[in-house]
Each structure stands twice: as structure tokens, then as C-alpha cells.
Write a structure and sequence with these properties.
single chain; 18% strand; four-stranded antiparallel beta sheet; alpha+beta; 9 helices; DNA primase, PRIM domain
Length: 324
């Protein structure tokens, strides 16, 4: 049996043992401390410390967070092939769970060893960002390649109808404008408009890392937000120095977290990052959603009324040495 650890709350790692809130206990209003559920990430065995030996309770946990799929009607040969394939998939999934557990266990060490003050990040920026300006969105837009394809800029719902064609323009056309027609941009280029959909994507030059819960939960208080951004900066530095990714831009969203734009690595590396994303406080969905409407520098966040700010910008996508 395999558990979807992304559905668990208050996850903590102790060696190869994962501890979290028990979904079944939480359903009944119990386990507020978040310590009842345990999972051996190597063997896949799980249970509830508050209900040892309770099969019905364990079945309820499985119903809430178990990974399962319906088996089709197969011939004997097909069943054998299906069993072999599932065995391989389960082994890979257990490895991903183990990698995720190790990533969560290493997070505290990463934050401590790779601490990166915002001023130091600003100083390391190849493009000198003297102060937030109305042209920051144009500086940011220069990251997109000169392919002649369209770039989408607008508000979240500026897609899907003929009236939205004006939100799809080439980089050259956008740079001629004084102000953008919205506070969002998609991290891709598009063949055409008016729909900002994955099937309309032409190129995907970036891997975007949305760090929204690097402290283990999504922050709401000012102190937690500051701590999350500090942890996020450390993660970004670790991804550059230890993992070899090329950092292009860092955007303070004006709210809880940071958006880091990296030069896009090969697909297998992106899948590897997806397997450990949630354990690092990274939004897993954004890693693969190249049509997502993300923050544009200089534009105000709807909830905080604070502007999204460029903290780091490197317009040379072929530089190999960074942060020195």
C-alpha cells in the first residue's frame, strides 16, 4: 500500500520514519498536535499511534490518503504483465517517497547552510536593480527569448474569448507599451491566442519555482512570512550552488513567498524536482504548468496592496558562474 504524502498535514521526518497528523483522527476532530500517523518510507507500512491494531481506522486512513487505481479485466498474460509493471511503478514510487522524505529531512540543513540575505541576493544580481521602477516589468520581459511567438500578459481571466487577443503579443510589441494590461504573465510563449492553454504553448524557456511554504506551512503572520522568504532564498541558493541550476530571476510576490525563474533543465530533471517539491515547500503544480498566470514585477498584489518586486535578474541565459 502506498500513501500520498502530499495529502498529509504537519509532516515531520525522523530517519526513514514519517510522522504527521492522522487523516482519520483529524476527520473526527482529534490529533490537533499532528503526531498520530506514522509511515515507514522504506517498507510502506503505516498506521495510527492512537489506534494501534484498529483495522477499520487504518482502512479509513487508506480511503483518505491511499494511492490506488482500478484494475481492468485482463487475460492471464496481461495480468502477469500488469503485475510486473505495477511492481516497477511501486518501486519507483517508494523511491520517490523516500527521496521526498530525505528532502524534507535535509531542508533545515539547507536553510542553515545556504542562508542568503535579501541584500546579498540583490548585490549578486547581474542587472543592477537600484530601486523598484515602472519599467521593471520590461526588464523582466527581456528574459523571454526572441522567437517571434506571442507572450501572454493580463489578468487571470483574460483568456478564452476573441476579446482577449490583445493579451497575446510578441516581446517586441509589449516593449513598446508604457504600462502592461494586467498584473500577470505566463512563463511560456504561445503560437496564437486567445486562449492561454497548454496546447497553445510554443516554447517553455523556464522552470519556475514558487516557494510558498518552505517553513512547513503556508504563512499568514508577518514573522512567518519573513521566515518563509528567508528559507526560500536559501533554497534558491542551494538549487544554484549544489544542484547546478541557472538562476535567471527572483521575484518577491508582494505576499507570502518568492518566485524563482531558472533556465529550463531537461524534462527528467523537472520530474525529479516534482517528486520532492512539496517536501521543500515548493508548489508542485507550477513546475509543470507553463501557462500559469504568475506575478508581474511592479504590479500590486490584490490582497496585500504591495508590489511584486524584482530582487535578482540575469539577462544572460548562458552564464555559467553565478553568485560569486
Amino acid at each position: 500500500m502506498l500513501i500520498n504524502i502530499d495529502l498529509l498535514d504537519r509532516v515531520k521526518i525522523r530517519g526513514h520514519k514519517l510522522v504527521s497528523a492522522c487523516p482519520a483522527c483529524r476527520e473526527g476532530g482529534a490529533d490537533q498536535t499532528g503526531t498520530h500517523f506514522f509511515l515507514d518510507t522504506i517498507t510502506g507500512k503505516f498506521g495510527c499511534a492512537a489506534h494501534p491494531g484498529d483495522k477499520e481506522h487504518r482502512k479509513r486512513i487508506w480511503a483518505l490518503v491511499g494511492i490506488r487505481e482500478e484494475r481492468p479485466a485482463l487475460t492471464r498474460a496481461q495480468r502477469r504483465e500488469y503485475a510486473q509493471r505495477k511492481a516497477r511503478e511501486n518501486a519507483l514510487l517508494r523511491q520517490a517517497q523516500s527521496n521526498s522524505a530525505r528532502a524534507a529531512a535535509c531542508l533545515a540543513d539547507i536553510v542553515e547552510e545556504y542562508a542568503w540575505d535579501e541584500y546579498d541576493m540583490w548585490e549578486a544580481s547581474p542587472l543592477r536593480l537600484e530601486a523598484p521602477s515602472h519599467d521593471d516589468w520590461k526588464h523582466f520581459l527581456r528574459l523571454w527569448p526572441d522567437t517571434g511567438h506571442n507572450i501572454w500578459i493580463g489578468c487571470v481571466y483574460d483568456t478564452g474569448g476573441e476579446e482577449h487577443h490583445a493579451h497575446f503579443r510578441t516581446k517586441e510589441e509589449w516593449l513598446k507599451l508604457d504600462t502592461p494590461p494586467g498584473h500577470r504573465i505566463a512563463p511560456a510563449t504561445f503560437h496564437h491566442g486567445p486562449s492561454r492553454t497548454l496546447d497553445a504553448v510554443a516554447t517553455t524557456p523556464f522552470m519556475v519555482v514558487d516557494i510558498d511554504s518552505a517553513i512547513g506551512f503556508k504563512p499568514t503572520k508577518p514573522g512567518d512570512i519573513a521566515a518563509n522568504k528567508a528559507a526560500g532564498r536559501a533554497l534558491i541558493r542551494w538549487m544554484v550552488e549544489a544542484c547546478g541550476l541557472h538562476l535567471l530571476a527572483v521575484l518577491d510576490t508582494g505576499s507570502k513567498g518568492l518566485h524563482a525563474y531558472f533556465q529550463r533543465p531537461p524534462d527528467d530533471q523537472i520530474r525529479a524536482w516534482q517528486s520532492i517539491a512539496n517536501s521543500l515547500g515548493i508548489d508542485k503544480g507550477i513546475l509543470a504548468n507553463h501557462a500559469a498566470p504568475l506575478r508581474l514585477p511592479g504590479c500590486l498584489h490584490e490582497k496585500t496592496a504591495l508590489p511584486a518586486r524584482l530582487v535578482f535578474l540575469d539577462l544572460n541565459q548562458h552564464t555559467t558562474s553565478q553568485l560569486s
